[in-house]
Each structure stands twice: as structure tokens, then as C-alpha cells.
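Q: Hi! First time doing this. I have a protein sequence and I read that you can turn it into a structure. Is that right? Here it is:
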Amino acid sequence: MNDPAKPLSLVVADALRVRILHGEFAPEERLQEVAVAEQMQVSRTPVREALRILAEDGLLTYSPNRGYSIKRFTAEDILVAFRARAAMEGIGARLLAERGLVDRTLQKLAAVLADGDALLARGRLPAGELDAWRDMNRRFHVTLLVAAQSDLLLRVARDAQNIPVVNEGAFRWYSAEDFRRQHTLHHMILDAIRRRQPERAERLMQEHVLEGGERVRAGLSLAGGSPAAGGS
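A: Yes, that's right. Below is the predicted 3D structure, encoded as C-alpha cells:
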């Protein structure tokens, strides 16, 4: 876990953030300094600072009597997060269609989409390959956001994913057809950007993100409506 380029508190915060966003903690579960320090084999001082950082990021809540606990997100929080992502990533796609993409970025995106094509070519996506799909999907979206060269768009889109069920995506609720549909949208978004079609690129990106949000909404409804702050 040691990273000499980072303060230990940030290393601890990063490690905890990954665990929270991957749903390893239950909603409102307390994170006790001593227990976390023992698990990570560090002193309580960097843990205390890490918990404060994560509270500022909106992943933890602090109570004077209970300390830090995992934040419980509502269905409304999740809806707003997907809408924010759709707006920001839609604008990013529009900007890229207006400016055009450099060959290096086009090649990188083409390689990402080829990875998705290969996963789909195996038929119904096996549950064991969801991590590979999440990685492909993340690389597609992050590459486009970085290429847009807007710190504001990147920050808002990333902040919108600071909810476990949003960060993990809707993939646990996807059918085989959903996987194909969403990846077709990936291809259509890149095609619109290549063709320098700003309105189309923005519309397709918004449609893509909001469809993912709808799958989450439907999945949570079937599961009883509880988004589970730490679960996905």
C-alpha cells in the first residue's frame, strides 16, 4: 500500500475509497479508526485524516457521537448523479465533435471498443467478465472526458460517480441485449464525433448514460428500492 509519492493519509483514503465504491461496506456501517488502522497496518493518525477526506468527498458522514459511517444514498441521489453525468459527458462529446479528435485518441478509443466487441462476440456476457466490461466502459468514458480538456466537466462527471451503485454501473442488471445496445451506442457516439456532428454526439451520449441510469432504477425497484450506500 505504500506510495512514497503520496502522503500516507491519501494512500489510506484512496484504498478505502475503492472499497467503499465497490460496495464492501453496508449503509451506515461505522468505520472505526482503530479497526481500520489495524487492517491497513498503519497508525491512527493517517486513518483519521483519510476518514476526514472521504467525508469531504461525500462518501462518509460524521456524527460527534458515532464518528464516521458509510453514507446512505437515496434513489433521488442516484437519479441526480446519472443526470449530472449525462449532462457533463454529453457536453464533452459535443466539444470533441466540434474540435475533432487527434489520431492517437481515435486509435485508443477504437482499441477500447474492439475490447468490448471481443467480449460480446463470446455470446451472453459471463458474470465472471463483468470486471472486464466495467474496465472497458470506464476507459471509453474517461478517454473522452480527458480528451475534452475541461477540468470542470471531468470533475463533475467523476463526482457524480462518487456513489457506489453509480460507480459500479448498471451492469449487474443488464440483459444480453442491454450489453449489445449500450456498446452499439459507444460505437455511434464515436462515429458522431468522427463525423463532426456535435448535436448527434451530445444526444447519443446523454441517451447512453441515462439508459444506464434507467437500468439501475429498474433494478433497485425490483430489489425493493434500497440503493444500499455501500452495496452494488
